[in-house]
Amino acid sequence: MSGMPVEQQVVARARKAFLTGRSKALSYRLSQLKGLRRLITEKQRDIADALRKDLHKSENATQLYEMIGLEGEIDLAVSHLSEWAAPRPVEQSLLTVADEVYIQPEPLGVVLIIGAWNYPWAVTVQPLIGAIAAGNAAVIKPSEVSSHTSKVMEELLPLYLDKELFPVVTGGVVQTQELLKQRFDHIFYTGNSTVGKVVMEAAARHLTPVTLELGGKSPCYIDKDCDLSVACRRITWGKYVNCGQTCIAPDYILCEPSIQDKVVKEIRKCIKEFYTDDPKTCPDYSRIVSLRHFRRIVALMEGSSVAIGGETDEAQCYIAPTVLTEVTSESKVMQEEIFGPLLPIIPISGTDEAIEFINKREKPLALYVFSSSDKMIKRMIADTSSGALLANDCLVHYTLSDLPFGGVGSSGMGHYHGRYTFDQLSHLRSCLIKKLRMERVNQVRYPPHTAQKLRWARLFLLKRVDVGQWRRAAQAVALVTLAAYVVQRFLQKS
Ligand code: NAD
């Protein structure tokens, strides 16, 4: 392999390891998942230190926003693995009633996981959990932007996982592009949509399927008919956590002018409560990840009025929690995903205009609606589209493993979390095992194609049968018969 670029060598080794078949054994998958779980528990301090250096995250915030979720996902995969990986029976037609028909999930092969920097453990290791559970090999490429975390991952993962099956490749765009030249069986990318297109183009060369976890502008509509103090508290949390660098952070608020002042007042109160009078010295308030992003976000304030915050410090990449008013669709801050602690408020005349405003734009990753009217919430669900809709809160849908997480349209394709990650990184193989008996039944499909055969074929093909239910019923009958027999024998003897 000498002479090959390092990235090519790594992928070749991962493929060779996959072809040994060891990643397929359920016991091996479980041992790797448990290794990952141990890493998270035993190396908490190293993980937290790196995130503090990268994003000024406190240790408790790291636990709350990244590690607890990963622990839950690993535990779920460990406890459900045998069920997820088992053959899945399906309904059959009368034509196949005597046969074995099921879906067998099987590993795809070698998966490339490209992570982003904002929650670097969550977005990189969460797909890895599914890749391991599904029996794949995975090449892990953490983001170079969160460089301390990337280094820690490179050091720690090989201590707890099979390093041939799950190698870590660090580096920047050059290394990622070298990786993208290789053939993978799936690419799981988290990041911005511009690079998402680069990834998809590279994947197309090998016809490799992709999952793209992208971002965009997630709107937050506040209906005037709702408890504004609770709504603003939840919005303040969802917006300013991780300094606004959250893919599902509410990007902007839509509300009627009559409640705007109250919204600003409530958010100001919550900022003070969460981050004190001086967020810059508050350990729970993060920093912008890089100077490039700092300057980009500061420039977005241009042309809008600062109602709260607005203070910046380039030396620390600090931007205060900020609310912007006098914002229109044409304002700079409305031209791209903010991904920082600026919260513009856009006045609209009511629900109709909010729906129109949302539908005129790209489909968002998350849509937030605050209202005490169920009817209004259901209308929002019916009349808009987004990766997810969350009513009367922010972000927390991410924590539910049973809800598929992902975008739609320009906010992404594919979804994951819990069993969805397992399925996303598996091939759902259709298996039909016929017997060589009962050839008479097949006469209906062999020429000559008579009208009578067609009538039978219609019955055989269109009648759907839940064979599993039949089997369960037959087992129940057998059990009852056996019990009756035992009782009868017992009564005869006594
Ligand atoms: P980033 O800059 O770290 O890029 C992501 C990955 O792409 C990195 O690993 C990087 O090496 C690679 N990359 C960057 N430029 C490349 C290029 N030209 N060619 C090949 N690879 C390249 O992260 P980012 O894009 O700044 O992340 C922020 C974006 O990610 C936001 O849009 C956010 O909404 C989105 N995001 C989405 C989710 C989600 O789950 N949907 C989660 C987190 C972040």
Automatic annotation (TrEMBL):
Pfam families according to UniProt: Aldedh
GO cellular component, one term: endoplasmic reticulum membrane
InterPro entries the record matches: Ald_DH/histidinol_DH, Ald_DH_C, Ald_DH_CS_CYS, Ald_DH_CS_GLU, Ald_DH_N, Aldehyde_DH_dom, Aldehyde_DH_NAD(P)
Chief place where the protein resides: endoplasmic reticulum
Presence of keyword GTP-binding: no
Residues annotated as domain Aldehyde dehydrogenase: 9-429
GO MF term set: 3-chloroallyl aldehyde dehydrogenase activity; farnesal dehydrogenase (NAD+) activity
A Gene Ontology BP annotation from the UniProt entry: aldehyde metabolic process
Membrane topology qualifier: Single-pass membrane protein
Record-linked SUPFAM superfamilies: ALDH-like
Gene3D superfamilies, per the entry: Aldehyde Dehydrogenase, Chain A, domain 1, Aldehyde Dehydrogenase, Chain A, domain 2
Residue positions of the active site: E213, C247
Subcellular compartments: Endoplasmic reticulum membrane; Microsome membrane
Catalytic activity: 22-oxodocosanoate + NAD(+) + H2O = docosanedioate + NADH + 2 H(+); dodecanoate + NADH + 2 H(+) = dodecanal + NAD(+) + H2O; (2E)-hexadecenal + NAD(+) + H2O = (E)-hexadec-2-enoate + NADH + 2 H(+); octanal + NAD(+) + H2O = octanoate + NADH + 2 H(+)
The entry's keywords: Endoplasmic reticulum, Fatty acid metabolism, Lipid metabolism, Membrane, Microsome, NAD, Oxidoreductase, Phosphoprotein, Transmembrane, Transmembrane helix
Similarity-based family: Belongs to the aldehyde dehydrogenase family.
Assembly: Homodimer.
Stated name of the protein: Aldehyde dehydrogenase
Organism this protein belongs to: Denticeps clupeoides
